[in-house]
Amino acid sequence: MIVCILWMAVGLLLIWRGLPYAGFRSDPAITSLHGNQRWIALLVGLVLGLGKGFTMLRKGARRAAAQIVARGERAPFWSVFLNLPMILLVAIMVAAGLTLRLAPYDPGVKAWVVGILYPAIGLALIIGGWLALSVEPLPSRH
Asked: Total structural domains in the chain?
């Protein structure tokens, strides 16, 4: 359950960080989308987030559930994240997200990219966390 809550919390954080770029939260340091642009970005983000959440992160949720079952109920919650593939994935995703926000490129393009991707990935993580609460673990490969 803690892993699911963590996924959802990170998802909410990403949505919150993306809202100024999409034009749904004011931040004077950020160039944001306006008018119909913001609604287009929101729609694209919703489609991408729902698609990723119900496809790729559903499998990820099942994999996490299988790891939790394999380690037992009393295993510490961080044990799901303490494997090399997960550490690398999280590191790459954090680095990519920071690069998207902090790299010096056209602020209008940045508003589109971050304004779509952050909420989309955030929504997908929330869906993945929600699904992980109720999915069946993936069968063992052995």
From this structure: 1
